[in-house]
Design a protein that fits this description.
The structure holds 2 protein chains of 2 kinds. Chain A is an all-alpha fold. Chain A contains 14 helices and no strands. In chain A, helix 2 packs across helix 14, helix 5 crosses helix 7 and helix 13 packs antiparallel against helix 14. The N and C termini of chain A lie far apart (70 Å). Chain B is globular. Chain B has a 6-stranded mixed β-sheet, with helices on both faces. Chain B has a 4-stranded antiparallel β-sheet with strand order 2-1-4-5, with helices on one face. Chain B has a domain of 190 residues: 3-Layer(aba) Sandwich (Rossmann fold), CATH 3.40.50.300. Helices cover 32% and strands 23% of the residues of chain B. The chains are: A mainly alpha, B alpha/beta. Chains A and B meet through helix 8 and helix 9 of A and helix 2 and helix 3 of B. The structure holds adenosine-5'-diphosphate and magnesium ion. Magnesium ion binds next to helix 1 of chain B. The site of adenosine-5'-diphosphate has 13 residues of chain B, from strand 2 and helix 1.
Chain lengths: 306, 275
């Protein structure tokens, strides 16, 4: 009598097949969600550059804007944003990094440290328009900077400092404790330890954090709205140094974000491609700052010593 | 187990004879607290120079804590309060005029997990000197080279590293890394070397060679070594301290402690009945 052909134990049972099917469904759903992330990025970039293509050219980049931005290029706003980022970096990087080092390497766990931690968290939650109002009061009026590049840079510095402190602390915390133990036990002070071992091994994380955050903030309109951005400036850029450094610290300045805000909606009869041109350059600038800082990070990482 | 939580914690611990020459480390009634948690109870112990004293006891009994209090590094690990006196080479290290960097220069530490710094082998060896010497006095390149060579020779690393001094220390094997961690203390001319389970990350061969090295070093340093390994304590140490729950239970010459433990608890531990 022939017994029913016995299945080999490695053949999937029906329950196994259901399991495998569910596994597949779950995996593919999550893959779709992950892929969906790149859709808006690609869509924005393609759409912007397509719409902007009629104006995009070398002269569009290096020409000053024409009357009301209806013609000409975007050199002055581009330089404005560039110097805004640079000035903010010079203000915020030392303060943010030093504070981050103190909090991570030195601060004892007491009420003062916790208060500083809470201040940092709360500051990070303040909307940028509120930072703008604070900037007007503190820098433009009280410190008598007037509406200027420096006042706007200070406003951005205040706005970005919590993220920079946090990024610094995280980068420092990623350096193994055992390195610090080794140094301390040979009698090195905390500062010697930080300077010779901890900082060199966290500088990549710190720098990228700082640059990314400042460039992100400088792409915003609100913080510069009342603190120094101008719809147009009367600057003669015929000499080369004026072309390269159009603004002094106490000048009002044009910036890409604010320029976009103006040309996009405020001016009648604005040609479409002029609007998209500004947006495309702004995006390109931010993307290139991001790529540079990511490249910088991987370069510093590859030199990392453990 | 014990209700007599007074500071008279170590009746047998008083065994180490008084006045037998200068003690290298001498503690009296040391209580240590992490916040509210008391980790050491009335520790009084005399540790002799130029021998290896091993520190044994179940996990969490305070071996690392005691070791770290000998160079006051505990204070770097949060809210620590220490009472009592710890004299090293006749000086109470809790006196106000004690400089912590100087103390730690004289009392070096080797860790459980080799932790060479993420710099070159060469720089690892002179890291301590660099942090203790003003730049102009650091000496010429040639002097430093000699210092590095002699430190590496003393730990039998010179032959394998002499052609790769510029390589990162982390490229060495674990055994070599641990020897490097010992070597980097030597240019500072320490008096005492503390070792916290120095062999526990190594394989059998590594253990053997590092034990040999430690044994050679005893002639010039006071060595206090925490170990989990009874065999190692027996093989490698001259005196042995058994701790339990933050107290010193017994301190005796190693052979005596293992053959004839005075305390019941010690006997139970070395027979492997708990811990
Ligand atoms: N930094 C610290 N903060 C609080 N408690 C600690 C700290 N370090 C150790 N302890 C506690 O002190 C006791 C002794 O720890 P430790 O000295 O590390 O023991 P061992 O080295 O013998 O295993 C343990 O109960 C441990 O939890
Ligand atoms: Mg321990």
């Amino acid at each position: 009598m022939a017994a029913p052909r016995a299945q080999h134990p490695f053949t999937a049972s029906s329950h196994e097949r259901t399991k495998l099917f569910r596994e597949k469904v779950a995996r593919n759903l999550m893959l779709v969600a992950a892929l969906a992330l790149i859709v808006p990025v690609l869509a924005i970039i393609v759409y912007l550059f397509y719409k902007a293509s009629p104006v995009l050219s070398f002269s569009y980049i290096i020409d000053d804007p024409g009357p009301m931005g209806k013609s000409g290029g975007i050199w002055l706003p581009l330089m404005g944003t560039f110097y805004l980022v640079l000035t903010s970096l010079f203000i915020v990087a030392p303060i943010g990094i030093l504070a981050g080092i103190y909090l991570n390497e030195y601060a004892p766990d007491n009420w003062l440290t916790r208060a500083i931690g809470m201040a940092v968290t709360s500051l990070a939650g303040v909307p940028s328009i509120v930072h703008a109002m604070f900037g007007v009061g503190a820098f433009v009026a009280f410190m008598k900077m007037g509406e200027s590049l420096i006042a706007a840079a200070c406003t951005i510095a205040v706005m970005t400092i919590p993220v920079i402190v946090t990024a610094t602390r995280e980068a420092l915390a990623a350096v193994p404790m055992s390195f610090r133990e080794a140094c301390w036990n040979m009698g090195a002070t905390k500062w010697q330890t930080t300077r010779t071992i901890v900082l060199p091994n966290s500088v990549s994380g710190i720098l990228t954090g700082v640059i990314l955050e400042v460039s992100r903030a400088a792409g915003e309109t609100a913080p510069i709205l009342f603190t120094g951005a101008a719809a147009s400036v009367a600057i003669n850029t015929s000499s080369l140094d004026r072309k390269l450094v159009p603004y002094d610290l106490d000048d009002k300045f044009m910036a890409l974000s604010y320029h976009l805000y103006m040309v996009a909606d405020k001016i009648a009869g604005m040609p479409e491609e002029m609007k998209f041109g500004v947006a495309a350059v702004l995006i390109a600038l931010i993307l290139s700052i991001n790529s540079v800082s990511i490249a910088l990070r991987s370069w510093l990482r590859s030199r990392k010593k453990w | 187990m014990d209700s007599s939580t007074t500071s008279q914690a170590n009746p047998a611990g008083a065994s180490a004879p008084e006045g037998a020459g200068q003690m290298s480390i001498r503690t009296r009634d040391v209580d240590l607290f992490y916040g509210d948690f008391q980790a050491l109870f009335g520790v009084s112990v005399d540790i002799k120079p130029n021998i290896i004293t091993s520190l044994i006891g179940p996990s969490g009994c305070g071996k690392t804590t005691l070791l770290r209090s000998f160079n006051r590094i505990n204070e770097r690990y949060g809210n620590v309060t220490t009472r009592g006196t710890i004299e090293i080479l006749g000086k109470n290290i809790y006196d106000a005029d004690v400089s912590l960097p100087e103390l730690r220069k004289s009392v070096g530490m080797v860790f459980q997990r080799p932790n060479p710094l993420p710099i070159s082998i060469y720089e690892n060896i002179i890291f301590g000197l660099r942090s203790h010497t003003p730049k102009p006095e650091l000496g010429r390149r040639g002097d430093l080279d000699d210092i590095v060579e002699s430190a590496l020779r003393e730990v039998q690393l010179w032959e394998v590293t002499k052609n790769r001094l510029k390589d990162r220390a982390t490229t060495l094997t674990l055994e070599q890394q641990q020897k490097l961690c010992i070597a980097r203390l030597l240019p500072l001319k320490p008096q005492v070397i503390l070792m916290d389970e120095p062999c526990s990350a190594l394989d059998a061969d590594g253990i053997e060679r590092v034990e040999e090295l430690i044994s050679e070093l005893r002639e010039r340093f006071t060595i206090v070594m925490v170990t989990h390994n009874m065999g190692q304590a027996k093989r490698a140490s001259d005196e042995c301290i058994y701790m339990y729950l933050g107290k010193i239970i017994e301190h005796a010459p190693t052979a005596e402690l293992f053959l004839n433990p005075r305390e019941e608890q010690t006997a139970m531990y070395i027979e492997g009945r708990y811990g």
